[in-house]
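Quick note —
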Amino acid sequence: MFGGHGVYLDGLGFVSADVEFKAGDTSASFERRLRTVSKINAPGPIKSLLGDTVTTVEDGVFDAVTRTWTFTVRDQRMKDKLAISGKVTTTPRDDGKIDQRVEMKVKSKVPLIGGQIERFAMRESTRSWAKSAEFMNQWVADRGFAG
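Predicted structure written out below.
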């Protein structure tokens, strides 16, 4: 299923991914809340704070007119100490492909290691976006949709 459990479980290797709320549809706009659990390989101080897995809740809104997904992500252990937000915009190209632009902001309020947490969160997010793109490109190609 494109954009469903496959991308999260198979493509990104999450332990679990559950849609908690969804309203609307992709032809106009929709909102979604997604809870995920993922294994992490964090440096020592972050691992001692977070453990081996991270549970996050992503709230997002898709606007079909601007082709933009706007989101916030909250780590369930560090709700008030870590803020992640951003937007993903897609733009059709003349060759039939799509460009995807991801803008993210990460802010940590953890004393002493906040900067390290921010860098780790950005590195992991960048890795996840790249893996997601690879998975979706392969999904499209496997079904004969790629040109």
